[in-house]
Amino acid sequence: MSATVAKIDEVKTTAWAGGHSPFNVSYGKMMMWFFLLSDAFTFSGLLIVYGFLRFSSPSWPDPDQVFQSAPGIEHGAPLVFVGIMTFILIMSSVTMVLAVEAGHSSRATRKQEVAKWMFWTIIGGLAFLSCQAWEWTHLHHEGAWWGRNPFLNADGTQASTNFSNLFFTITGFHGFHVFSGVVINIIIFINVLKNTYEKRGHYEMIEKVGLYWHFVDLVWVFVFTFFYLV
Amino acid sequence: MSASHHDTAAVHHHEETMTKKKIWTVFWYLLGITTVEFIIALLLVPKGVFTQGIANVVYIILTIVKAFYIVAFFMHLKFEKISLALCIIVPLVFIIAFIVAMLGEGDYTLLAR
């Protein structure tokens, strides 16, 4: 009897027998990956609806005509402002991954380094959101909003309101991700300053928020291509 | 070997990982690819070197290359176990199926207008 119980209670050690994670990552990191996978499906759904409506329309506004302004430049600067926004987001991804790298290191200054790079990541996120606020305000002043589209199609015909609806919905949903990313980054930044991760002995939490932050950058790469280039 | 002990080991154990040098290399790749996209959009298409159709194909290829660098290096997936990478990458096949289905349907809707 006791021998049978002992056999059942025996700890299984191989990866696929339930002994330990076959992925060799912690639970939190794995779940962040699967959350991001589900989020990828959400964004794909939005972008595919955009593709469907664009493919089923006889014509569509030319992005170089719609997005040709930057602060101080009213016309004739296509892609300039969105180029700055893209650069800001790539830069903030770099500072994020530098924070992860510092967290992995055993350097004496690791806490200060993580805090420094987290700080710059937050600044990058805020800069991106400010740029988006400017762009939305500018388009709103030109008469674009949900249900309203002042831009003509590339062939000169009247465009449907789908262009504005999709632009504000998709960049808005992405912007909301950036916003929540900044909030999470601020929480983690405060924890770094409070020595939470020094006491814990590792900075894995930086990796988890880093995954989220890079995903936001990843989505922007696709939004940039399909709204501003194609 | 308790579960908590193993989790800590997973956190600290990285045979191959990102160094500062690699981070900046990936940054220059991403910046370079974006610059190429801008050159196509602002110079090559207006001058008629590329048609918009060819440019769109190039944009999509370059976008996927950028996505690879972000996921593989910044998100570290290249250095994770292959089982985790497959669990994340393989389901994306469904997105491709969805794209093919919906764009075909969009074409048909235009035809049937």
Walk me through what this model shows.
In chain A, helix 5 packs antiparallel against helix 6. With 230 residues, chain A is an all-alpha fold. The N and C termini of chain A lie far apart (71 Å). The model of chain A has no long low-confidence stretch (mean pLDDT 93). Chain A is built from eight helices and no strands. By secondary structure, chain B is mainly alpha-helical. Chain B is 76% helix and 0% strand. Chain B has helices at 3-12, 20-44, 52-74, 82-89, 93-112. In chain B, helix 2 (20-44) packs antiparallel against helix 3. Chain B is flat, with a radius of gyration of 20 Å.
Outline the low-pLDDT stretches of chain A.
none
Mean pLDDT of chain A: 93
Which quaternary structure do these chains form?
A: heterodimer
Distance between the termini of chain A: 71 Å
What's the rounded overall pLDDT mean of chain B? 88
Total strand segments of chain A:
0
Biggest chain pair interface:
A-B, 61 and 58 residues
Biggest sheet character of chain B: none
What is the rounded Rg of chain B?
Answer: 20 Å
Main sheet overview of chain A: none
Rg measurement of chain A, Å: 23 Å
Low-pLDDT sequence parts of chain B: 1-14
Query: Strand-residue fraction of chain A?
Result: under 5%
Shape of chain A: flat
The proportion of residues forming helix of chain A, as a percent range, comes to over 70%
The coarse silhouette of chain B is flat
The secondary structure category of chain A is: mainly alpha
Can you lay out the helices and strands and say which pair or pack?
The complex is a heterodimer of chains A (230) and B (113).
Chain A: H1 2-9, H2 27-55, H3 63-66, H4 80-104, H5 110-141, H6 162-193, H7 196-200, H8 204-229
Helix pairs in contact in A: 2-6, 2-8, 4-5, 4-8, 5-6, 6-8
Chain B: H1 3-12, H2 20-44, H3 52-74, H4 82-89, H5 93-112
